[in-house]
Amino acid sequence: MISRSDHAEPTAEMWAERADKAESAIVSRHLRRLWGLPGTELGVVGWPPTRPERVFASWHYWWQAHLIDCAIDAANRAPTPQRRDRIATLARTHRLRNLDGWTNNYYDDMAWLALALERAERTQGLTELRGGLLALEKELVSGWDERFGALPWRKASDFFNAPANGPAAIVLARLGHYDRAAELADWLDKTLRDPETALILDGVHLPGGELERAVYSYCQGVVLGLETELAVHTGDVQHVERVRRLLRAVEDRMTVRGIVSGGGGGDGGLFNGILIRYLALVAVMLPGDEPEQAAARRAAAMIVKCSARAAWEHRLDVEGEPLFGHNWAEPARLPTGSAGAGLFTVGGSVTSSRVPERDLSVQLSGWMLMEAAHLVTAAGL
User: Containing domain of residue 109, as a range?
Assistant: First the structure.
């Protein structure tokens, strides 16, 4: 059965129910044993899947890191032994599928996984994952290039971008490396903030200085998250001011009627969900009792809630479980087969499926969105 019903005014309890359904949809459609091995679980990257996807020939390291993060969201919202076990199983299976331990050559990939493992240990007490976190921490600390004051996108690359340095700096802050995290925040603000729009650009080639001027929603998200973390832990007011400035730019240039605009599949399917994750963090964590700070928290929460209402209203219900659209302001489309599945490009990114809704990335963003809406609503925002 496919429907588009349910227009009730959302409460925290309703968002919790919707987050439960988003979780259930991912579990039933995407989670499978790795190579049939007992005690393993990983996310199939498309639904319906191709044969290579079913056997995890394609698995996308950083998508799986966000799958772990979403599983942590659910466990933090409503703890159960099953949810806690799932986090540990996903993480262990991630390491197994990676074949060569926890790390790889991409600093953005490693930063996303480090964020998930740090949260797993801190919020769920999964100390058995500490070895993975320490391995990733070592890579992120040693990968800093002192010539430029930042991390490259991948080892031996001349490209230094926000998608690597933003999440790396957040996890370094959470691990107590406040000075290094602040250095990276300063680098991002000085090097990649567009003075005309105040938005964060994608990256820069160094030492040449050629900017890649694309503007992606997740670049804004990680900088919002980083500056909020630093505002909390250092008390430096400049971090609050940077949050407020970037939040205004996001409101003005990346939302329509309060809804995060646009969307896509493939790697891009995660971009808006990551922005939402860190908008929720701004809403519940940005310090300060002044009216300006309170207004910023409300504004961040409003984007989360407007986007979540739109995504829920435009979802498809497929056999009782939601299928979210890649663009939350438009009706979701049902993928009717696996033809047109996303592919790796020469540069290493993943293209969108012909129907973006089949991509695990898109559905993870929907799950993130439901969890974020519950978080801010439960906080009274």
Answer: 2-378
Model pTM score: 0.97
pLDDT of residue 348: 76
Contact yes or no for 30/321 (Cβ under 8 A): no
Domain count across the chain:
1
Query: What pLDDT, on a 0 to 100 scale, did the predictor assign at position 338?
Result: 86
CATH number at residue 251: 1.50.10.20
Q: Among 213, 217, 281, which Cα is nearest to 255's?
A: 217
The residues, ordered by sequence, that sit 6+ positions from 20 with a Cβ below 8 Å of its Cβ are 74, 78
| Average pLDDT value for residue range 92-106 | 97
Q: Whole-angstrom Cα distance, residue 85 to residue 330? A: 35
User: How many C-beta atoms lie closer than 10 Å to residue 341's C-beta?
Assistant: 24
Least confident among 5-19, 51-65, 179-193, 207-221 = 5-19
Report the alpha-carbon distance of residue 61 to residue 221 in Å, rounded: 20
